[in-house]
Amino acid sequence: MKSRDGRCQGLAFVPPDIEEFDILMAPRMNVTGTMLEVDGTPVANRPISAIVEFEFDGEVYSATDKWGTTTDAQGRFELTGLIAAKKYSVRVLREPQPGEIGQRLEFALHFTTDKNNPTQDLGEVKIPSPKE
Question: Where are the beta strands (DSSP E) in 22-58?
Fold first, then answer.
């Protein structure tokens, strides 16, 4: 859910038997970083996706909405329009190898977005090389 001016957004988990509920809105923000292999080589042109995780009634859920981007030639990435003060799981995907169908999960990263910061830098994120 987004505010009319597009500057805030939020999530609502509504059980079917609830008639009235509140939606907590938070500022939208961007997260940047650089993905590197363990040896310092940039992870270039790799698709990544981020999924917000939230807790409701003691259970952890993943939202259906996700944010995605691709690293540039230097391994830099920017995820835009994330919800502030939420937990995210970022999945780095690799292209299928011969004989495989579909992309494969290469690495997962978890972080929590800042509450009062419009841009958050994760710095260098080192990931293992895909297995040949």
Answer: 24-37, 47-56
